[in-house]
User: What shape does this take?
Amino acid sequence: AAFSWIANFFSTILVSLVTKPKPDEELKGLVYSLTEKVYAKESRWYMKAGPLGLILLLITILLNIIFF
Assistant: This one.
C-alpha cells in the first residue's frame, strides 16, 4: 500500500508540472474563488444561524437542568 501511495503521489506531481493550467474563463462557475458572490438582502431572524443557535443552546441548558 505504501509503494502504491508513493507512486500515486509522484505521478500526480509529475502530471501537474507537465500539463498547463486552464484559463480562468474555463474555470468560472466551477471553482469558488472565481464565482461571483451573491449577497442576499437582510434575512429574517429565523433564517440566521446566530439566533437559532442561541435558542438551541438555551433549550439544551434548560433540559440539562430539568433532567440532571
Residues 48 and 58 are 16 Å apart (CA to CA). The chain has three helices and no strands.
